[in-house]
Amino acid sequence: MLTHTSRVATPTTNLGERIKNDIGPAVTIFAAVPDMEPFEPMKSLEQGPNAQLVAALRPAGELPKGAYLWQCQVATPSEYARDEGGVLTKRLWEVSERVVRRKFE
Question: In this structure, what is the dihedral angle of CA atoms 14, 20, 26, 29, given to the nearest 10 degrees?
Answer without folding.
Answer: 130
